[in-house]
Specification:
This protein is mainly α. It has 21 helices and four strands. Strand 3 and strand 4 form a beta hairpin.
């Protein structure tokens, strides 16, 4: 370890030191509060600035990679984490659950996700995954007195351990047959004809990472965990960790197994299409909005995987743009959901949304924008996200997967449009309480990007995603 190595991991050091200092402060104070949340957000902002202004290269004998891709992903992850802190902290304090550990767990999850997107070998890959996963397990069960929250944390932990086992078994096979854990050495070993043992290991590795992004058929944890976990935590789950896992999967496949694309591309296509259709058809039967958006996230991960399967620079760019735009949509939707209460109860079912437009037109418009964007209807942001994915898939010759993905999008339109119909046209069963200012601000700001204002955002997002994916051409 040298000073040059430490310089390249400044964002991670800032998050680690910041989390430890805040842990000491919180232990003495015994509670959190808005100022504590603000301090945690400041740590994330400083880490983001360090990521943007820092040097690029490889640290710790190639185990950590700092490049345009990792910087792009870290900035998006830190921004989503910074929004999750005041949203979740305010939501918990409103329920008399003011614990300082929430902000620290988000910081530790962001630290793990930063390590994931900079992973240069199988060891750093696993360390990053486990660090962020352990924090997420606790966040899912954060409300210890809530049976559903405890159940969500337990299910997430048990199934997460299963995925870790799959991932480690795959990594051990790859190491045994390739002779190294470093992606560049693995890439050299699969040039020409990959060993069968390496390919078996790759399948297990993909299976473990597919669990982290809740891709079918490894999605079984998602609906139950989404339903039981605190609403702001679900908004955090559904965005940043999936972006980190997708970038990690893309880096592992492109840098370590780029020469074997003919072997893994078909696996990714099958997982992508399974995700699209499981998410589309299973979502039709859902009444609970958190479960509904769990299946929506499964379907949307399918589209991101379709972009990844296209390979090359265009496929990477499409995946990055899709995930960032989806991150905005899902964060905004769950900000809306966390702000909504009627008669002292949270509004978490489709029927609860009846008459919302007459009661809270701003939130109803925002949810409408997020729903239509997730559907992929023009001119909302989700349309452009899917456009780039389908364009990359067609460019790679994946015509039938692109057509089937479009069919799945049409099927999923039913549950998005049903929600909009209930909000706009059904009679309200009671008055909606005044939403918290923080949740309203986050929801309406995110809605601006889901509305056609995203055309302006695309002017800077597209070249950034292109620069991040340039190394994978």
């Amino acid at each position: 370890m040298t000073l040059a190595d430490l310089n390249l991991v400044r964002p991670e050091l800032i998050l680690a030191v910041g989390a430890l200092l805040l842990l000491l402060v919180g232990a003495f104070r015994g509670k959190g509060g808005p100022v504590f949340d603000l301090a945690a957000m400041l740590v994330l902002a400083v880490a983001g600035a360090a990521a943007v202004t820092g040097d690029q290269g490889r640290a710790f004998a190639g185990g950590v990679v700092v490049d345009n891709l990792s910087t792009f992903a870290k900035v998006a992850i830190y921004a989503a984490s910074a929004l999750a802190i005041p949203l979740g902290g305010g939501w918990l304090r409103a329920r008399g659950d003011d614990k300082f550990e929430f902000a620290i767990l988000v910081l530790l999850a962001a630290l793990g996700m930063g390590m994931m997107v900079s992973a240069g070998d199988l060891i750093s890959l696993y360390i990053g995954i486990e660090l962020h996963s352990l924090a997420l397990y606790v966040l899912a069960a954060f409300r210890r007195d809530d049976a559903k929250s405890s159940e969500a944390g337990l299910k997430y932990f048990v199934l997460g351990a299963l995925s870790s086992g799959l991932l480690l078994y795959g990594a051990s096979l790859i190491y045994g047959f390739a002779g190294s854990t470093h992606f560049d050495v693995i890439a050299a070993s699969v040039q020409g004809q990959a060993h069968t043992g390496v390919l078996f290991g790759l399948i297990f590795l993909i299976s473990g990472l597919a669990f982290k992004v809740s891709a079918a058929p490894f999605h079984m944890w998602t609906p139950d965990v989404y339903e039981g976990a605190p609403t702001p935590v679900v908004g955090f789950f559904a965005g940043a960790p999936k972006l980190a896992a997708m970038v990690l999967l893309a880096r592992a496949l492109s840098e370590g197994f780029g020469a074997a694309i003919g072997q893994w591309q078909q696996v990714i296509v099958v997982i992508a299409l399974l995700s699209v259709f499981v998410g589309a058809f299973a979502g039709l039967a859902q009444k609970n909005l958190k479960r509904l958006w769990a299946y929506s996230s499964i379907a949307n991960i399918g589209y991101a995987l379709l972009g990844l399967a296209a390979g090359g620079e265009s496929g990477m760019q499409a995946m990055l743009m899709f995930m960032v735009l989806y991150l905005i949509d899902v964060t905004g939707f769950f900000a809306c959901l966390s702000a909504l209460r009627r008669d002292g109860k949270p509004m978490e079912t489709i029927d609860d949304m009846a008459g919302l437009f007459r009661e809270r037109p701003g939130l109803a418009l925002a949810i409408t924008a997020f729903s239509l964007s997730a559907l992929g209807l023009p001119p909302f942001s989700g349309f452009f996200a899917k456009f780039f994915v389908f364009k990359a898939a067609l460019g790679a010759g994946l015509v039938w997967p692109a057509v089937l993905g479009l069919v799945g999008s049409v099927v999923a339109a039913f549950y998005y449009l049903r929600l909009i119909k209930v909000m706009w046209f059904d009679p309200a069963p009671g008055a909606v309480e005044k939403p918290p200012a923080t949740a309203m601000a986050i929801a309406l700001t995110a809605a601006l990007f889901a509305f056609p204002v995203v055309l302006i955002a695309l002017a800077w997002l597209e070249p950034l995603a292109l620069a991040a994916s340039a190394a994978f051409g």
